[in-house]
Amino acid sequence: MSIFNRDHNRFENFASHPMRLFISMAAILIVLVGLAAVLVFFVNVQGAEQTLVPDVIGRDLTSALLELQVKELYPRINLRYTQSSADKGLVLEQNPLPGAIVRAGRRIQLTVSQGVVINTIENYLGRNIEEVRIDLQTIVASQTSTQVLPQYITLKEPPMYEYSAETAGTILQQRPEAGATYSGPTTLELVVSRGPEYTMVRVPNLMGLGLADALETIGLTGIDFEFSVRPAREGESAGTVVAQSPRGDTLAASTGRVSLTMSVPENLSENEVFGLFVYDMAKNPYPLLLRLESILPGGERRRLLSTQYAGGRLSVPYREPVGTILVLSMLNREIHRETVTRPVDSLSLDQL
C-alpha cells in the first residue's frame, strides 16, 4: 500500500509541474512587457521635455508659426497697436523666451503688431470749447490699457479767440479739419468766439436790495461787477446796496463793470462776520461759470453766488459765522478757499 501511494504522489507532482512552470513564465512575460512599456513612455516623455523654444521675435507671423510647428509648439496670439505701420504682422514679444527648454505641445504666447490705429478727427465746429475739453480729457483717461497704445487728441492752449456773432465759447475753426485721419497723439488747434465785440446790455437796478437778493440778481443777469462795503450813512438802510454805477435801467457796454456799494448790516451776532471776499484771478477771454459757496461749521453747504464771470478781481460781500469756509470754483473746479476768522470790528479801512 505504501509503495502504491508513493508512486501515485510522484505521478501527481509530475503532472502539475508543467502547469506551474507555464504560469510562472506567463507572469514573468507580463512583468517584462509592462516594464518595457513604462520604459518607452518615459523615454518619449523625456524626449518631449527637451524641446528648445525658437527665437521668433521680429519674424512675420507666418514664418513664426511654421517655426513653432517644427518644434511641436503651439501659439497663443495677442494683438497690440504700435506707432509704426511697418511693424504690422511682426512678432513683438514671446513667452517663454527664446532658448527655454519646454515640453512638446506647450503653448507659446506671441504678441503681434496690428500696426497703427487710424482714427478720424471729429467735427468740433459749433460746439462749446469747455464741453470739448471735458470730452477729450475723458477719452485720454479711459485709454489706460497697456495692450493698446493711446491715440489721443490734446488741445493747443490757449486757443485763439476772436469776436464774432456766435455765442462766447463757440468753436469757429479747427485744425486738423473734420474727417482728417491721425494715427498717434495729435494737437488740435481751435479758434473760439469771444462773442460780439460791441453790444449793449441793460443794467439791472440793484439799489436797496439786500445781500442775498443782490447776488441772486447778479447771477441771473450775468453782469460784470465789483463790490465795496462801508457803514450805513444817514438815510441809508443797513445791509443793502446804497450806491450803483452805472445806474440801474440804463444801457451800458457788455464789457463794462458795474460798481456796487453795500452798507454794513445791523444786529450782527457775536459769532457773525460781515466781510468782503476778495480774490484776484486771470482774465478770461469770455465769461465762465463761477460759483462761491460757504461750508458752515456744522457742515451745511450753501451757495452764495453763481454767475458767468470774465475774471479779474472778484469782490463779494458775505455774512457768515466764524469758522465758515468760503469755497470759490470755476467750471466746477475749486480754485480757492479760505476760513472766516475776521470779526466785524476789525475790518480794514480798505474793505470798508
Furnish the topology, listing elements before pairings.
Elements: H1 2-48, E1 51-52, H2 61-70, E2 74-80, E3 91-95, E4 101-102, E5 107-113, E6 119-120, H3 129-142, E7 153-155, E8 160-163, E9 171-175, E10 181-182, E11 186-195, E12 200-202, H4 211-221, E13 224-230, E14 241-245, E15 251-253, E16 257-263, E17 272-281, E18 288-295, E19 301-309, E20 312-321, E21 325-330, E22 333-339
Parallel strand pairs: 2-5, 7-11, 8-11, 13-16
Antiparallel strand pairs: 1-4, 3-5, 6-10, 9-11, 12-15, 14-16, 17-20, 18-19, 18-21, 21-22
Give the helices and strands as they follow along the chain.
HEHEEEEEHEEEEEEHEEEEEEEEEE
Instruction: Indicate the structural class.
Output: alpha+beta
Would you count the extended β strands for me?
Answer: 22
Largest sheet: 4 strands, mixed
In short:
The protein is of the alpha+beta class and 352 residues long.
Report on the structure:
Strand 21 (325-330) and strand 22 form a beta hairpin. The chain has helices at residues 2-48, 61-70, 129-142, 211-221; strands at 51-52, 74-80, 91-95, 101-102, 107-113, 119-120, 153-155, 160-163, 171-175, 181-182, 186-195, 200-202, 224-230, 241-245, 251-253, 257-263, 272-281, 288-295, 301-309, 312-321, 325-330, 333-339. It is built from 4 helices and 22 strands. It starts with a helix and ends in a 13-residue tail after the last strand. The strands form 8 sheets. Strands 7, 8, 9 and 11 form a 4-stranded mixed β-sheet that branches. It has a 4-stranded antiparallel β-sheet with strand order 19-18-21-22. The chain has a 3-stranded mixed β-sheet with strand order 2-5-3, covered by helices on one side. With 352 residues, it is of the alpha+beta class. The protein folds into 3 domains: 51-113, Trypsin Inhibitor V, Chain A (2-Layer Sandwich); 119-195, Trypsin Inhibitor V, Chain A (2-Layer Sandwich); 200-346, Trypsin Inhibitor V, Chain A (2-Layer Sandwich). 23% of the residues lie in helices and 35% in strands.
